[in-house]
C-alpha cells in the first residue's frame, strides 16, 4: 500500500555531509528554560548535497513538555521528512499527536518497528504514511533504520546516519535489545564504515553494565558517546571512566551535537 512504503531518494549518494542532533526531551535538563520528563525525543537536522532535511526520533510521553521544548528550542518542522518511533513504550511515543499538530504538514513518513493499531490510527488521521521497518530500511540515502531487534513483544529500532567525513552516527531510544546488537546492526547497514558516535538511551543500571558497554565503545573506536534517558548515573560514570572525557559527552534536554 502506498501509505506503508517509501522509496529511497538520491540513491547515488551514500553519505551525508553532516548532521546536527538536538535532544528535545530527556530526563535531565541541559539548557536553561527547557523542561525534563522521563522519556526521550531527538531531532536530527541532516545536510545532504544541496538541501537539508530533518528527522524526529521519538516524541517522549508528555505533550506539555514536548510542546514547551520544541517552542523554546525554536525547532522548525517544515523540513521534517521522517518520524522514527523506536519502540512502543509510552515515554517514547505518547506525545505523537501534539507532535503531529506542531508539524502541520504530511510530506513525511513514520517508521514503526512493527504494527500498532492506536498509533497507526493517529498517523492515518493526519494523513501520515507509515512504514513498518522490521528490516533495516533506507529513509534517505545515507540515513537508515537498524531494523527491529528484540523479542516480538518489544521490538526496537535505532537510526543510523552515515556522515561522509567521520562515519556512522547511531541514535538509540532505549537499547532494550542491548547496545551491542544495535551497534552491530548499524554496521551491517553501511558495511566498512566505522561507528563515530552513539547517542541516546542505553538501558544500563549498574556500574558493571556501564563498564562492559564502555569497553565495547573503546574496542570499536567510537569517538563520541552520549548516554541519556534510561542510563543510570553509575553506569554513565563507568562509561566515562573507560572512554575518557574527550569521547564522553553529557546529555539532557537542549543538548546539541554537530557532526560533520
Labels describing this entry:
six-stranded mixed sheet; Metallo-beta-lactamase, Chain A; globular; 260 residues; 7 helices
Commentary on this structure:
- By secondary structure, the chain is α/β, with parallel strands linked by helices.
- The chain has a single domain (2-251), classed as Metallo-beta-lactamase, Chain A, CATH 3.60.15.
- It contains 7 helices and 13 strands.
- The protein has a 7-stranded mixed beta sheet.
- Helix 1 (63-73) links the parallel strand 3 (51-57) and strand 4.
- The longest helix is centred in the last third of the chain and has 14 residues, at 207-220.
- It is globular.
- The relative contact order is 0.17.
- The model is unreliable at 1-12 (pLDDT under 50).
The CATH homologous superfamily is called: Ribonuclease Z/Hydroxyacylglutathione hydrolase-like
Which descriptor suits the 3D outline? Answer: globular
Uncertain ranges:
1-12
CATH topology: Metallo-beta-lactamase, Chain A
Tally the structural domains. 1
Q: What secondary-structure arrangement, pairings included, does this model have?
A:
Blueprint: E1 18-25, E2 41-48, E3 51-57, H1 63-73, E4 80-84, H2 90-93, H3 96-103, E5 109-112, H4 117-125, E6 129-132, E7 138-140, E8 143-145, E9 159-163, E10 167-172, H5 179-189, E11 195-201, H6 207-220, E12 224-228, H7 233-243, E13 256-259
Parallel strand pairs: 3-4, 4-5, 5-6, 10-11, 11-12
Antiparallel strand pairs: 1-2, 1-13, 2-3, 7-8, 8-9, 9-10
Helix pairs in contact: 6-7
Amino acid at each position: 500500500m502506498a501509505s506503508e512504503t517509501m522509496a529511497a531518494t538520491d540513491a547515488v549518494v551514500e553519505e551525508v555531509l553532516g548532521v546536527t542532533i538536538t535532544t528535545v526531551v530527556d530526563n535531565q535538563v541541559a539548557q536553561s528554560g527547557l523542561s525534563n520528563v522521563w522519556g526521550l525525543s531527538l531531532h536530527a537536522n541532516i545536510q545532504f548535497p544541496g538541501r537539508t532535511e530533518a528527522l524526529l526520533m521519538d516524541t517522549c510521553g508528555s505533550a506539555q513538555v514536548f510542546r514547551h521544548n520544541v517552542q523554546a528550542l525554536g525547532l522548525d518542522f517544515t523540513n521534517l521528512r521522517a518520524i522514527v518511533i523506536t519502540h512502543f513504550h509510552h515515554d517514547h511515543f505518547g506525545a505523537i499527536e501534539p507532535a503531529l499538530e506542531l508539524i502541520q504538514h504530511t510530506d513525511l513518513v513514520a517508521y514503526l518497528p512493527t504494527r500498532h493499531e492506536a498509533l497507526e490510527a493517529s498517523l492515518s488521521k493526519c494523513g501520515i504514511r507509515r512504514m513498518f521497518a522490521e528490516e533495516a530500511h533506507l529513509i534517505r540515502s545515507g540515513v537508515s533504520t537498524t531494523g527491529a531487534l528484540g523479542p516480538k513483544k518489544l521490538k526496537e529500532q535505532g537510526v543510523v546516519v552515515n556522515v561522509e567525513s567521520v562515519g556512522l552516527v547511531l541514535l538509540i531510544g532505549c537499547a532494550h535489545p542491548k547496545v551491542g546488537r544495535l551497534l552491530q546492526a548499524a554496521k551491517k547497514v553501511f558495511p566498512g564504515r566505522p561507528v563515530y558516535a552513539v547517542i541516546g538511551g542505553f538501558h544500563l543500571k549498574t556500574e558493571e553494565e556501564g563498564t562492559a558497554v564502555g569497553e565495547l565503545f573503546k574496542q570499536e573506536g567510537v569517538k563520541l558517546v552520549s548516554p541519556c534517558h534510561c542510563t543510570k548515573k553509575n553506569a554513565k560514570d563507568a562509561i566515562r571512566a573507560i572512554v575518557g572525557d574527550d569521547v564522553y559527552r553529557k546529555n539532557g534536554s537542549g543538548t546539541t551535537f554537530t557532526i560533520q
